[in-house]
Amino acid sequence: MNLTSIFRPVLLILFIFWALSLFGCAGHGAAPEPDFVSTRDTKWVLVDLNGHGLVDFAHIWVRFDSDGKIYGSGGCNSFRGHYSIENKEFRTGPLAMTRKACSGSLAAQEFEFMEALESARLLFRRNGLLFMEGGGHVMEFSDSN
Q: What span, in angstroms and rounded, lies between the C-alpha atoms of 119 and 96?
């Protein structure tokens, strides 16, 4: 038995592991590409907030109009204001909000949502969903259509 016949299977196995490691890592380190155009003029309904479902069947939604206006509902109170895109970063201006009394869990969730919305800096779409991230918060929205 010569060395070539011994090393050929070993080299083949090493090559396969190397190739799998390249494909296994592809896309995990790449930052998502911001999407500030296709998200406009659509009502986006929140389906997940920071990895948790929504309490009390809350209907939390947001809409970004082409003219820079943002409005929606935190589940109990409605809000409106302006947003801007600067240097590929999303930012909201001051948001005005109604002040209706809400149940404890709904009020806490609404506060968390508004905090996440005001700290969001990145919007991107993946598999038909809208994601907003920033300030340690992650929100996932579904198109209402």
A: 16
